[in-house]
Amino acid sequence: MVDAPASHADLLSRPLFAHLATVRPDGAPLVNPMWFLWDDAQGVIKLTHTKRRRNYQYIRSEPRVALDITDPDDPYRYMQIRGVVEAIEDDPTGAFYQVLQLRYRGTVGEVSDREFRVIVTIRPTGFKVR
């Protein structure tokens, strides 16, 4: 397990957007803003996604990913995380999506695409901070 740098741990604990980079089949990168949850006990990052998105297919075919989290109070301060998708679990009730709704919006609502929802678990392999 690679430890997250203590100097930037707040970026993992705050409800900030992580920019997730995946690799398309043609080798080109694709970056999307994502909600996330840092599981400090396990040392992993968890995201929610749906099976209907192309990015989901890219993750399944190439599990190496990268994330970037920028401090909105100081845009020159950021954390870059390289990692590997360790697990993809079905979330047919949308329960994890609702955990993230509460974290990011402060309320929980209906998950209209719950039957397509998955939980993506990323194991960090390296961190870079500035």
Short summary:
The chain is of the alpha+beta class. Helices cover 18% and strands 42% of the residues.
* H/E element sequence: HEEEEHEEHE
CATH fold name: Pnp Oxidase, Chain A
CATH class: Mainly Beta
Rg, rounded, reads 14 Å
Question: What structural class should be given to the helix and strand makeup?
Answer: alpha+beta
> Could you say what the CATH architecture is?
Roll
CATH superfamily: Electron Transport, Fmn-binding Protein, Chain A
Give the CA-CA distance, first to last residue.
Answer: 21 Å
Strand order of the largest sheet: 2-1-5-6-7-4-3
Number of helices: 3
The fraction of residues assigned to DSSP E strands is 35-45%
What is the chains' assembly state?
single chain
What do the pLDDT scores average to? 96
Q: What spatial form do the alpha-carbon principal axes imply? A: globular
How does the major sheet shape up?
7 strands, antiparallel
